[in-house]
Amino acid sequence: MKKKVLVLAGAPGSGKGTFKEKITENWEFTGYPYEVIEMSTLLKGSKEFQKIIASGALVNDEDVINIVKKPIEEALHFIILDGFPRTIKQADFLLSLPKLDLIVVKMEADDKEIIKRVKGRRVCPKCSASYSTIKEELMPRTPGICDKCGAELIIRSDDTKIETRLETYRKETEPTIKYLKDKGLPYYEVDSNNILYDGFVQNFLFEIGM
Asked: What is the domain extent for residue 86?
């Protein structure tokens, strides 16, 4: 049986995290197991990789592929891939894996809105929950404190390099998304500025057969 793989793509701050949360919140209705594979989480264990990410650059393809290969192979029925693939070489690796049904979702937002969102973003260093200082629906109940685990929220180091990260995204990752689209894979573009997430996600899961 093939595994469905949702390739969640888009610029930093384009709404991938919110879309991912809505997918998992609605997932219980499908009755299937799923796995969320986040490259940012997988790369956390290396100080060298964290320095690269904090600079706004990308970790080299070989290291990324070596890290993500096992989690993809071990996952069960459905996989949400966040942050992979980001280059053509990484995309070719994903396309070479057997028994995967790939579905691409590209989140869209203009650069001005992205920069505003990212500079207002706060994250929990313990449970990775995301919050905002500018979007009321994403603000924590207690300012600066995670609702889920009570840890003090922080600014991600790479969020301070958002302009550099956007340049890298336009140069490396956006062509990769087009590359996957041109392969004829199921492809969805989502305007994160104008979306009613719950209704859209429920329809989306139905449409992809979950």
From this structure: 3-110+162-207
